[in-house]
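I am hoping you can look over what I have pasted underneath with an eye to the fold:
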Amino acid sequence: MHDLEIFKLIERISSLLRSEERKKYAAIGLQPVHGQVLEYLAKCNKYSNTHASVAEYLGLTKGTVSQSIQVLEKKRLLAKTTDQHDARVIHLSLTEAGLALINELKPLEIFRQAEAEISDQEFGNIDHALRTTLGMLQKANQSKSFGPCRSCLYFGVEAHHYQCQLTDEALDREDTDKICRDHMPVDYFTNQE
């Protein structure tokens, strides 16, 4: 019974935030899915900024993602570039207008107000509980974690630079804070037992 109550609380919080999000995006002629695509692209790294990664992260079909990307490209909120090593791969990035829009619309004011009412200690406990719950749900669903490079098993520090040990490529400082579709939590193997 307790688990069902937690689920209902998370579902209700999500509904309230999505409702507020719909209002904001409707005012500028976009759908919430368009905002979700922009938000994802604002926080993902260079390995994770493809159509397939967007679809996987958001749990959407490739068709829905392609249509959303077309809308965002027409509104000049994102740009496409061809991969230097594989011409079949298209990378997506936010334009200055796309970045400005994300900064203008997030975080939601209602969330800021609620957060201000919660003490730092309470918020820290909620943050930890939600992150743990998300991690467990991702494992149960066998979905990727999409975590930041710095918390990844493949993250390394070589002589004077950061390194992705999966791709064997150097990472820019800004990439280390972004999320990656190939993320492997450091504690993944210890939690499998």
